[in-house]
Amino acid sequence: MTEFAQWQGQHMMQCWSPQAGYDPIPVSRTEGCWIHTTDGKKIFDLRSAHECINLGFNHPKVIAALKSQMDQVIYVTDDFAAEPTGKLARRLAELTPGSPNKRVYFAQSGAAAVEAAIKGARLYQYNQMFQEGGLQKADAPGQYPYPYKIISRYKSWHGSTSGASSVSGDPRRWFQEPLTVPGVVFAPEANAFRPPFGSPENFVDENLGYIEYMIENEGGSNKVAAVIVEPVVGSNGIIPPPPGYLKGVREICDRWGLLMIVDETMSGMGRTGKLLAIEHDGVEPDIIILGKALGAYCPLTAAIFSEKVSASFENNIFGHGQSYSGHALGCAGALAALEVLVDDGLLQEVASKGAYLESKLRSIAANHPCVGDVRGVGLFYTMELVADHDSKTPLRKTTEKYTRTIIKDISDFLFREKNVYVPSDKFGIWVVPPLIVTESEMDWFCEAIDEALDLVDKTLSAGK
Q1: Same domain membership, residue 261 and residue 124
Q2: Which residue from 277, 268, 227 is spatially nearest to 250, judged by alpha carbons?
Q3: Whole-number Å distance between alpha carbons of 447 and 18
Q4: Most buried of the four, 96, 244, 302, 446, by CB within 10 Å?
Q5: Which stretches of the chain score pLDDT less than 70?
Q6: Could you tell me if residue 375 is left (phi over 0), alpha (psi between -120 and 50 degrees) or otherwise beta?
Q7: Of 312, 343, 374, which residue is a domain's last?
Q8: Model confidence pLDDT, tens digit, residues 21-74
């Protein structure tokens, strides 16, 4: 019986796609890194279900926690307390950088957590400006409105809700224009492979200098509320920060009295070998966004407010909220996931697995002229593909996200011929396996990637 796949294809809206031809593949079960279809295929999920299943499918400890919680409290409003909700809020406050005296807002999607972070940052600045004593900003005339502008980056994705997509540089923002939320300004990303300006020796300083130039010309601390960054750029190329960049952003925010928001929706929950990617740089953010893998198999995300930020709401209203915030079932799953990562030692394994994966990918890349760059951290990697190695001409430009290119052909080949599932809308080959992946599984899918790159090289060579 596979009618359910037909019903889904006929009646469900598929994300980021025209609906004609939607033909979802019926699945019978999942386990570990694998998806089993009803026709007997076994498919390796090299994108970790949109980066949501860092622990793989059906992890026994998480499943046991969810089953146990379903016999107790599944959901109550925040006028009541459920044990896993309170425990998770406390644990996240303690595990994340900075003072444990934080407050956590729970949502059901990364975009919803971003909305909370943006609103929280703006309300914080409002509270600061209109606190007792009147207007406190000195670097520009005290004018209404309060600081509200958010500085983001062109290579970024923060979600599809109005506020979240408005602070996203990703081409998916264009679907919403011209009705994006005002008050967002975009800076260039810090990409060592494709620096927007500067030389390889000074591009970080040039980048940081430009962000500071933007802040001053957008009204300084009188008009700018926060800077939002992905500590490792996700959808737009898996771009790790160059040394000194994130610390530089932190210093700029401190100089201007801005909040630093880090979006760990993709890079958090152990993906890079630390619980949070920002920990690699020793930076303490003001607001941390966690999503995707936080709830393991339940939709659960969080905006974590530092002691400084949360203190401003002790006697001021936090004007935000959602039904199902702090859902006890999701919190139980998240607590079990944290136990696997932190207490059972899976985090420590990610660094060694990542080193093994990187060596495999670099070895493959050395034999393929179409690979322009191999980059990543932990088990968060990409191979950026180019039409020409010297000029670094990309095989998919920013404006070609939804245009069929060789990138889509690679995705189709890996899926049809090799039973490897990778996204088709990225700017290279997405290599983001579940953290439980084994070396033999990495050997297997790397061999498949090697074959796919052979096809690219042949296609490019034939076109010359």
Answers
A1: yes
A2: 227
A3: 33
A4: 302
A5: 1, 132-144, 463-464
A6: beta
A7: 343
A8: 999 999 999 999 999 999 999 999 999 999 999 999 999 999 999 999 999 999
Residue 272 lies in domain: 67-343
Candidates 161, 147, 145, 150; CA nearest to 112 is 161
Closest CA to 186 of 173, 199, 205, 204: 173
Structure tokens at 372: 């322009």
Looking at the fold, whether 338 and 362 belong to one and the same domain comes out as no
Peptide bond into 145 cis (omega under 30): yes
User: Which token pair is 182?
Assistant: 């005002």
Query: Does residue 178 have a cis peptide bond before it, meaning omega lies within 30 degrees of 0?
Result: yes
> Is the Cβ–Cβ distance between 440 and 54 less than 8 Å?
no
* Cα gap 131→437, rounded to integer Å: 52
Strand 380-388 and strand 393-394: the pairing is antiparallel
Q: Which of 316, 343, 370 is the last residue of a domain?
A: 343
What tokens were used for 463?
């076109």
For residue 256, the domain's CATH number is 3.40.640.10
Query: Measured between alpha carbons, how far is 192 from 299 in angstroms, rounded to an integer?
Result: 34
- Containing 211, the helix (H) or strand (E) segment is helix 203-217
Domain shared by 333 and 353, yes or no: no
Task: Using alpha carbons, select from 338, 340, 320 the residue that is nearest to residue 90.
Answer: 338
Alpha-carbon Rg for the chain, nearest whole angstrom, is 22
Count of domains forming the chain: 2
234 with 267: CB under 8 angstroms?
yes
149: exposed, middle or buried (C-beta count within 10 Å: 0-12, 13-18, 19+)? buried
CB contact set of 383 (below 8 Å; sequence gap of 6+): 361, 364, 365, 371, 373, 374, 428, 429, 431, 449, 453
- Structural contact between residues 361 and 446, judged by C-beta atoms closer than 8 angstroms: yes
Q: What angle do CA 386, 387, 391 make, to 5 degrees?
A: 80
Q: Alpha carbon of 351 to those of 97, 272, 371, 380: distances in Å?
A: 20, 8, 24, 11
- Residue 2: the pLDDT is 85
Let me know the angle formed at the C-alpha of 168 by 166 and 172, rounded to the nearest 5 degrees.
90
What is the C-alpha separation between 375 and 158, in angstroms, rounded? 21
Nearest to 293 by CA among 110, 170, 429, 75: 110
Shared domain check, 224 and 124:
yes
